[in-house]
Amino acid sequence: MGIPERKEREKLMRRETILGAAESVFFDKGLRAATLDEIADKAEVSKGTIYLYFASKEDLYCSLMTKALILLLDTFREFRPEDAGPETALRRFGEAYFDFSSRHSHLFRMLAAVESPAITEHVSHEVFSALEEASDKVLSYVATYVQKGIDEGAFGNEISSHEAVVLFWVSLSGLLNLKERSLAMKRVNGLNADSIIGSVDFDTLYKKCQDYLLTVLSQGKRRAARLRTEPKASGRPIKEAKALRRK
């Protein structure tokens, strides 16, 4: 390996070290309270070194979230949706998302805050574009299998593949975020078991939500099949009614 290649590898390794330190500090303190000095100490680099890679604390946060989305896409691929039919593929995506939220809980919780204006308003165009591209790759990957289901007749076409993906994303993300919130409330100050949040089994509800969303996608298919089997009106009652009106 030549000197340029070795320097480039060292640069990439240092960037990963900074991102790893940032993940720990951001999760412990949140974006607002965290400082670049703390991240530099954790990464064992100077604050000036961080600025060689990231223009601001917000750029660092969003770069970390871009990495998280790439990791989420890799997790989706681990569950091999290409080996299944459209409905099973979507179930696998749901399972993969649940797995990601458990295995990488730090990153999952931080992703929930990435769309906050407090973050995005102070991010450079280059970093925000990379984040947006990573997010679109994740959604497009899932949308491909929804569209396949529509094309094959497994799903109805009353909503588009893009609409379906957004519906899945918002619903499942909302449940997982609420689950994390309930766990945090139990750890900090307890949670009334009789409250709505305290009484819900989120793991079971997550599976029920998947079933419901798949039912919504399949409704159009069933409705179309019903219309194909229903006898068509002959038009005779209308003709007879017109004849009676003329008498």
Structure commentary:
The chain is an all-alpha fold. It folds into two domains: 1-53, Homeodomain-like (Arc Repressor Mutant, subunit A, Orthogonal Bundle), CATH 1.10.10.60; 57-246, Tetracycline Repressor, domain 2. Helix content is 80%, strand content 0%. The chain is built from twelve helices and no strands. Helix 1 crosses helix 2, helix 5 packs across helix 6 (105-111) and helix 5 packs antiparallel against helix 8. It is globular and about 60 Å long. The N and C termini lie far apart (99 Å). The model has no long low-confidence stretch (mean pLDDT 87).
Write the layout of secondary structure elements.
Elements lengths: L2 H31 L2 H8 L3 H7 L3 H22 L7 H18 L1 H7 L5 H4 L4 H28 L8 H29 L6 H4 L2 H28 L6 H11 L1
Largest sheet: none
Structural class: mainly alpha
Overall average pLDDT: 87
Weakly predicted, low-confidence segments: none
Strand content: under 5%
CATH topology of the largest domain: Tetracycline Repressor, domain 2
- Indicate how many domains the architecture comprises: 2
H/E topology pattern:
HHHHHHHHHHHH
Residue share in helix: over 70%
Report the C-alpha radius of gyration, rounded: 25 Å
Total beta strand runs: 0
Query: Under the CATH scheme, which architecture of the largest domain would be assigned?
Result: Orthogonal Bundle
Distance separating the two termini: 99 Å
Taken from the alpha-carbon principal axes, the silhouette is globular
- CATH C-level class of the largest domain: Mainly Alpha
Give the count of helical stretches.
Answer: 12
CATH superfamily of the largest domain: Tetracycline Repressor, domain 2
